[in-house]
Amino acid sequence: MPILSGSVTFARFRVEPAKEGHSDLRHGFARGLKTNxxxxxxxKSDEDRSAGFAELENPDSTEFAPSNLFYGERAxxxxxxxxxxxxxxxxxxxxxxxxxxxxxxxxxxxxxxxxSAARANIRDELRKRATPNSKNHDVAWTIxxxxxxxxxxxxxxxxxxxxxIEGAFAVxxxxxxxxxxxxxAGFADEALRPTAELVGIxxxxxxxxxx
Length: 211
Fold this sequence. Notes:
The chain is an alpha+beta fold.
């Protein structure tokens, strides 16, 4: 569950259909998540990052069975991000060791081409042994109330998840912030300006607009 204890950070949205007649979100919900499901990193490729939807309780699974997805009116899942990093210092040390061994065997310094090839081979070997760093960002979608929460403090990650959800479910996520809520409620801009009491202006000073 995304609500545990201590301090938390999340972004809250109102979920609106991107087109008319689109309201039954439960139908085909798992199919929507699977359109952008998490896929493990392929160590044979050059990709160092993989991101996608996964089950909340078991981020290694992308089956999204109803029993693992729906909790009453809420759908709970996560956005999993795996990154693979080869420490530059480690690669540099390995290259130095290779150069020393090369000079000892060939009685000369390796050429630029030979160093480049060795550097690529070292990176590939270190990449094969590296363990991906995995982060899971909880998402709580209260379907009946048309509200969605993304539990992360990273604006970049919030934007990435928002785009993925809007694309997977043909919806529009509207940030639930004071300005947006006031506009939706029909308040005029003038009604949202600070009052004289709020900024510490009283009596005749407020009438003349002077502090």
